[in-house]
Amino acid sequence: MMKKVILFGGSFDPIHHGHLTVAMAAVRQLNANECWLIPAFDAPLKDRKLTPFHHRVNMIKAAIAPYEQLFIHSIEATLPLPNYTVTTLQHLIEMYPDTKFVLLIGADQAADFHRWKEPDTIRSLVDIAVYPRKGFSHAQGFMSIDQKTVEVSSTEIRQGASTQTPAEVLRYMISNNLYTEAIVSSQLSEKRMAHVLRVTQLTRDLAIRYGIDA
């Protein structure tokens, strides 16, 4: 009997409770053996730079530690850029020929599925399951995950407006000084933020010049 694995890709910048809730709901409802979280090394459809890959991987590992059926796969770090979902799927299917994969996406992603690279090829490779997102109706032609919408935003976590992520992830964020600039900028005017950044850069330059730890 083939193992059934759900593939849940995303930037996970950072991972949060919403991701974990959806992943476990999909495992239960689709009767899957496992769910693999696949962080994007690069995000072709995003217009901002992602947090370094190793930090996002470490945060995912911290978040999924209590869950026996959740795993992380870092395949996208090994693939040429720019990378697309279709390429990731083709490589995973080749690597794990005895595994049946199901792709898990949000209703917002399903609405834009036609923009993805080779959407018809993706459909031919795997089944696709969609979880609800606020403001988006159920996408026709996909399996549906019956899960109450969990409104958690990675953006709000990055800006310090939400703490809806596991405590271990928050500790990692703090100890590695992640998202500090985004948190500060969300609290300051654009002019004030520019001033803070200039002062910060000057401090670094002076520290380097005089051999001081900054």
List keywords for this structure.
214 residues; alpha/beta; Rossmann fold; 9 helices; 6 strands
Written account of the structure:
The protein is an alpha/beta fold. It folds into two domains: 3-178, Rossmann fold; 182-214, no CATH class. Helix content is 43%, strand content 15%. The chain is built from nine helices and six strands. The chain has helices at 17-29, 53-64, 85-95, 107-111, 119-125, 154-158, 167-175, 180-187, 190-210; strands at 3-10, 34-39, 70-72, 99-106, 127-131, 143-144. A six-stranded parallel β-sheet has the order 3-2-1-4-5-6, sandwiched between helices. α2 packs antiparallel against α7 and α3 (85-95) runs parallel beside α5.
CATH third-level topology of the largest domain: Rossmann fold
Mean pLDDT: 87
The CATH superfamily title of the largest domain: HUPs
Number of continuous helical runs: 9
C-alpha Rg (nearest Å): 19 Å
Kindly name the structural category. Answer: alpha/beta
For the secondary structure, the number of strands is: 6
CATH class of the largest domain: Alpha Beta
Topology:
Layout: E1 3-10, H1 17-29, E2 34-39, H2 53-64, E3 70-72, H3 85-95, E4 99-106, H4 107-111, H5 119-125, E5 127-131, E6 143-144, H6 154-158, H7 167-175, H8 180-187, H9 190-210
Parallel strand pairs: 1-2, 1-4, 2-3, 4-5, 5-6
Helix pairs in contact: 2-7, 3-5
Task: Give a short synopsis of this structure.
The chain contains 9 helices and 6 strands. With 214 residues, the protein is α/β, with parallel strands linked by helices. It has 2 domains: 3-178, HUPs (Rossmann fold), CATH 3.40.50; 182-214, no CATH class.
